[in-house]
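Chain A, query sequence.
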Amino acid sequence: VAKIVPEADMPFLADGTPKYSPGHAEPLDAHCYAQAIDTWLALDDAGRPGLERAQRGARLLVRDMLLPDGSVVFQRRRGPDSRVPFIRWTAAPSFRALARLSRATDARGS
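Chain A, predicted structure.
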């Protein structure tokens, strides 16, 4: 990807955090994390290495977006975070991605 996409337009920061849009890392958005995990798993299903990157994305999602009570932050911004618990909007895609990753990891035995 790095050969065809300019650095500023890469969809991820150096640590693997998904960007909100090309050239914009903020706000951190739960959908971006979930989509990144799903995308890496789809690549892995297609025979391209993606499982390790999906696992890294999951660690970042848990670190950055999951609250101690188990709810998912909608967006983290420079100002106050948007912590409204959108079950279908943020929690469902996040937990779906984590569940898919768990199944893929179990199937691979990693």
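The longest strand covers residues 28-29. The radius of gyration is 14 Å.
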